[in-house]
């Protein structure tokens, strides 16, 4: 295969994934800035702030999972629209038979029809309703958790610093989820770059607000570590409002936008929840094993916990490229399903995994060649020698950690693109809790590897999950290769308009039994995709 052909085949996926990864990196820069400014305070502040951020991320990722499917709903609706425009036996809208032509490279170039426009608006209304309800519940849960952490034997001084930070972080979950609805909408329409600029700007705003609230700059109250949480919540509100203004001015997105969650069709909201709940539990399971690792690290002292928080942040930064590939490949698979292209999902999966492996190898070489500059971003010269030693050791484990965690996240995205959101949750239960957690306890305490044992267990859990998910994806491709139209209906929670289904997914009686395959999809598969 020539280099030019390789670039041409990978370019569409990169065009969608790279802006998503950039957005993710800009968002992570918020917490990275927070952690760096905590490091200027004390090791205990890093330990407490890192604990608060970990708990916040636990709930944040679970809440985000509830609205993540809107991107796939939007992408599938657009794909069906393009399939209808193409007509039976028509040319591939991508231009090369594989969705990789000029139109595929130019997001938003092709307009969608009125049927798809209605579907997108209905999906957005339902998503804003779900986001608001889930955000309120998540905020309440974070406040309760700030007090419940005393049950885990954490250092009392660390908890005294972490609790007020968690409380002021809690209300920011609501605008954060509204922002994610808009983000998934833009991703589904293949216009994620419109969010990148406002997200980058939020990093600078966050840094300024951190200084204002931590140190009392410009007459603001001096709040210390609590000010970090207040700055983050303020940035979530400002970023949502800023991106909402951008979307309203986008000629492709504005006509499709509807934020009126109070007018949502409850049947579509239920479809979104049926898809989103397994994703939420999957994200929660992933964040949960990281939270367990953080709690275990607390038992080895503030120095080990600080080292863990720093190395975990390094790995988390790199992980954002895999999130971009996961979401980008998921969108491409959903589009392919809507367009009835049975070969594109497998090609997309191969490209995403290949790009991820290349990136992880490159980052791993940086960790090996220059560990001190990497850790020096977060730990200053005053850091204890024991904490630095632990951080150096964990950085080597982070190489395998990033590779396996990235592969499993891409697997989750590929399955979500097929409409299968349940398998991700089922397999994370096995990989994280039946393999990873026992491995952490075994290595850390029985084998007396201490902090390194916790990370060895994390690597084992992510590796097992990656293998299970990717095997399931290949299996679903083999079993469902001839049922793309049925899968499209499953992903969207409604039948293709050619089948005269209403927006809630109830097929017209005259066409409900058009074929055994379609009947099986509607009666047995449902909105969640194939049964496991």
Provide a descriptive summary of the structure in words.
This protein has helices at 3-39, 43-67, 69-86, 102-105, 114-148, 156-169, 173-188, 193-215, 225-248, 266-298, 302-338, 344-369, 371-376, 385-417, 422-446, 451-480, 484-492, 516-525. 57% of the residues are buried. The protein is 76% helix and 0% strand. The model is unreliable at 90-109 and 482-532 (pLDDT under 50). It is mostly helical and 532 residues long. The radius of gyration is 23 Å and the shape is globular. The protein has 18 helices and no strands. The protein starts with a helix and ends in a 7-residue tail after the last helix.
Question: What's the rounded overall pLDDT mean?
Answer: 78
Model regions low in confidence, pLDDT < 50 over at least 5 residues:
90-109, 482-532
Largest sheet: none
The end-to-end distance, rounded to whole angstroms, is: 37 Å
Q: Helical amount among residues, as a percent range?
A: over 70%
Name the structural class: mainly alpha
Which of globular, elongated, flat, extended, rod-shaped describes the shape?
Answer: globular
User: Radius of gyration, rounded?
Assistant: 23 Å
Helix and strand run: HHHHHHHHHHHHHHHHHH
Q: Tell me the β content.
A: under 5%
What attributes does this structure have?
532 residues, 18 helices
Short description:
By secondary structure, the protein is mostly helical.
Write the topology of this structure.
Layout (H helix, E strand, L loop, with lengths): L2 H37 L3 H25 L1 H18 L15 H4 L8 H35 L7 H14 L3 H16 L4 H23 L9 H24 L17 H33 L3 H37 L5 H26 L1 H6 L8 H33 L4 H25 L4 H30 L3 H9 L23 H10 L7
Helix pairs in contact: 1-2, 1-8, 1-11, 2-5, 2-6, 2-7, 2-10, 2-11, 3-5, 3-7, 3-11, 5-6, 5-7, 5-10, 6-9, 7-9, 8-9, 10-11, 10-15, 10-16, 11-12, 11-14, 11-17, 12-14, 14-16, 15-16, 17-18
């Amino acid at each position: 295969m020539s280099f030019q052909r390789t670039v041409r085949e990978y370019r569409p996926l990169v065009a969608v994934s790279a802006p998503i990864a950039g957005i993710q990196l800009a968002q992570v820069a918020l917490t990275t800035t927070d952690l760096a400014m905590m490091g200027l305070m004390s090791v205990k502040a890093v330990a407490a702030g890192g604990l608060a951020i970990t708990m916040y991320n636990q709930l944040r990722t679970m809440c985000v999972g509830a609205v993540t499917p809107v991107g796939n709903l939007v992408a599938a609706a657009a794909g069906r629209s393009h399939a209808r425009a193409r007509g039976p036996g028509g040319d591939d809208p991508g231009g090369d038979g594989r969705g990789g032509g000029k139109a595929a490279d130019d997001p938003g170039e092709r307009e969608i029809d009125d049927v798809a426009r209605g579907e997108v608006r209905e999906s957005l209304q339902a998503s804003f309703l779900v986001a608001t309800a889930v955000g309120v519940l998540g905020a309440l849960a974070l406040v309760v958790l700030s007090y419940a952490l005393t049950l885990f034997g954490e250092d009392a001084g660390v908890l005294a610093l972490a609790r007020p930070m968690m409380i002021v972080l809690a209300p920011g979950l609501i605008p954060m989820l509204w922002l994610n609805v808009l983000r998934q909408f833009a991703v589904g329409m293949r216009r994620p770059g419109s969010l990148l600029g406002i997200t980058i700007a939020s990093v600078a705003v966050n840094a300024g607000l951190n200084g204002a609230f931590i140190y009392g700059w410009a007459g603001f109250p001096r709040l210390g570590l609590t000010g970090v949480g207040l700055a983050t919540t303020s940035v979530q509100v400002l970023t949502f409002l800023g991106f909402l203004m951008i979307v309203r001015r986008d000629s492709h997105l504005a006509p499709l936008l509807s934020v009126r969650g109070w007018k949502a069709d409850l049947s579509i909201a239920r479809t979104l929840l049926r898809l989103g709940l397994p994703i939420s539990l999957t994200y929660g399971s992933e964040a949960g094993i990281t939270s367990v690792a953080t709690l275990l690290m607390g038992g080895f002292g503030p120095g080990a916990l600080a080292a863990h928080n720093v190395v975990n942040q390094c790995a988390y930064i790199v992980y954002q490229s895999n999130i971009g590939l996961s979401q980008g490949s998921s969108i491409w698979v959903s589009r392919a399903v809507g367009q009835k292209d049975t070969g594109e999902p497998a090609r997309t999966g191969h490209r995403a995994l290949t790009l991820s492996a290349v990136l992880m190898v490159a980052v791993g070489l940086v960790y090996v060649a220059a560990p001190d500059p990497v850790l020096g971003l977060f730990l200053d010269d005053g850091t204890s020698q024991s904490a630095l030693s632990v951080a150096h050791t964990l950085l080597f484990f982070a190489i395998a950690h990033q590779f396996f965690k990235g592969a499993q996240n891409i697997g989750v995205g590929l399955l979500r693109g097929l409409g299968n959101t349940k398998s991700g949750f089922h397999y994370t239960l096995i990989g994280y809790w039946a393999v990873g957690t026992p491995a952490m306890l075994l290595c850390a305490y029985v084998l007396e590897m201490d902090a390194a044992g916790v990370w060895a267990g994390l690597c084992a859990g992510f590796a097992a999950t990656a293998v299970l998910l990717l095997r399931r994806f290949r299996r679903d491709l083999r079993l469902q290769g001839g049922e793309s139209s049925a899968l499209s209906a499953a992903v969207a929670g409604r039948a293709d308009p050619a089948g005269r289904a209403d927006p809630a997914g109830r097929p017209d009686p005259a066409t409900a039994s058009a074929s055994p395959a379609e009947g099986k999809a509607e009666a047995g598969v449902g909105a969640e995709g194939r049964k496991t």
